[in-house]
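Exam revision sheet. Question 4 asks you to relate a sequence to its structure. Input first:
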Amino acid sequence: MITIQIASIPDREEMLRKTVESLRPQCDRIWVGLNNYTKAPDFLKEGEYKFFDNSTGDAVKFYNAENLEGWVLTCDDDLIYPEDYVEYMRWKTYEYQCPVSLHGKDYPRPVIAFNKILKNYRCLDEVKKDVFIDVPGTGVLCYHTDLIKVAYADFKRPNMADLWFAKLSKEQGLNLVCAAHEKGYLKYQHPTETIWDAYKQDNFVEQTKLLKSFL
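Answer key, structure tokens:
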């Protein structure tokens, strides 16, 4: 079973359409957490979505994760994914026997702050070879439920899904890998605001606290 889970907000409905169109042929099931939507987009079928009030933010990508089986890919509503994306991510996850992303960060030891990064491997830029990372990007993440146990309740604060997933992986003794890819492999749809922009205003205080708790 291949399940794709996405979180979305109303401002990105047209972006979401392109995201879903790029992924639907590659999976058995696609599911979208609709944060603050009042009406489901017409391109989603019954059973492919659930309404949320956005109180958990991007964590809805992991809604019902404890009941999923098989391959799970969490995706973002501002990306368009290539036609071989799911196959490539499954192959890399099988190869390393751990969760794999196309985006990740490494941090110095000791950790200074969430935004004080040692190395940043971006999903939109070239990553020349597979590398082990500290924190994965959950918008381009693949895992198998036989490898890691994930529950929606594990994501205790909103819009910090990358860090909560990294913490889970660390606690379960798993590596995290950023897989090699070319620049332009993913297409970016340029939203007006991102989670990074929103939390930058608070100087990443909560993110830094969480990061230091497991690295």
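Marking note for examiners. The CA atoms of residues 32 and 49 lie 5 Å apart.
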